[in-house]
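Entry for the shared binder. Reason: the reviewer on the internal report wants the predicted structure included alongside the sequence.
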Amino acid sequence: MAEKKPVKMSDADLKFFEEMLLEKRRELVTAQSDSEKANVFLDQKNQSGDGGDSEGADSATDINSLETNLSLAAREGKYLVYLEEALKRIKNGTFGVCKICGQLIPKARLMAVPTATKCVNCKEETKKKEILDNRMEMAKMFAEAQRKEMLRKAAGR
C-alpha cells in the first residue's frame, strides 16, 4: 500500500504568500508608526490650548477619538499576531493547509484572507458549532436563573 504524501503548497506559492504577508506587515507597522506620530502631534497641539469655551465638547470628542484609536490599535495588534503566525506556518511548510481537514485552502481564499487557517467549509462548520454552543450556554444560564428565582420564591413563603 502506497504511503499518502502530506499536503503542502508549492514552493512558488509559499514564496508568493510570504512576500504578500511581509508587505502587509510592513504596511501595518508603518501605519501604526504614522498614527503614533500623529497622536504625539495632536497631544502637543492640545496641550498648547486655544483658550476657547468649547472644552467640554472637545473633551468628549477626545475621549471618543481615544476609544476609537484604542479599538483600532487592538485590532491591528491582533492582525499583526495573525500575520506573524502565518509567516511561521510558511517557514514550517503548513501554510495554506486547513488545520481541520488537512486539505489545501484554495488560493482565492488565501488571497482574500491570507491569515486563514481553515478552508471555507471547515470555517463554516466551526462557526455553526460556535453558534450552537453559545445558544446552549445561554439556555443553561437562563435555566439556572429560573431555578434560582424559583428557589428564592419558595424560600420566601
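Summary line for the report: The mean pLDDT is 84.
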